[in-house]
Amino acid sequence: MSFSPASSEPHDAPAAAGSSVPASRSIAERWKMEAAPIRARLLLRAFAWLFSLLALVVMATDVHGRGGAQDFSTYPEYNYCLGMSIIALLYATAQLVRDAHRLSSGRDLVAGRKAAAVVDFAGDQVVAYSLISGLSAAAPVTDYMRQATDNLFNDSAAAAISLAFFAFLAISLSALISGYNLSLEAIV
Asked: Topology: which residues are Extracellular?
């Protein structure tokens, strides 16, 4: 039995008189809790990868007719949104590979825990802001065109923008977890 520095009660003592739950967690429970943010970030990055891929595919195939107003490549806003989706897809792919390697081997591809935390946080921030920038550039064009006519081209553009927004949400939530991990590294 060990004693807590803040109190004179032992760590293994029950939390309440009639309870059998220990006041502290076992090492295995702590390990599971420490790995929870890593697993959550991996899941969020997988969602970001999926939504970025879908946004890329939907926007790149948004060609209805032969050029002119029914082709996404004639609108620079859509090209920008497509470019940001490509960047998000590449980033999410790299981070998924890195996180999977980290979970499977226990070692990170980036040397140093603090450097890895900074890379995670900065990368998530840059990609999240890039995605929101791309979709906020494309959304007004789609809204304006949908007011004039509602067709498959506009619906596909709106779907691609929505998927890019979901990718943004996943990466921005991953940035919150990365920020939490960075703050823990700054304390240590």
From this structure: 64-76, 136-156
Q: What is the DSSP string of 67-131?
A: SGGGBGGG-HHHHHHHHHHHHHHHHHHHHHHHHHHHHHHS--SSSSHHHHHHHHHHHHHHHHHHH
Residue type, 123: G
Contact 124, 174 (CB under 8 A): yes
Give yes or no for a contact between 44 and 174, defined as CB atoms under 8 angstroms apart: yes
Q: Which residues pair with 14 in a beta bridge?
A: 22
The answer to whether residues 37 and 103 touch, using CB atoms and an 8 Å cutoff, is no
Splitting the chain (188 residues) into consecutive groups of 10 residues, what average pLDDT does each group show?
45 50 53 71 94 93 70 85 94 90 79 84 95 93 85 87 96 93 79
Q: Per the confidence metrics, is the pTM higher than 0.90?
A: no
Cβ neighbours of residue 24 closer than 8 Å, sequence gap 6 or more:
11, 12
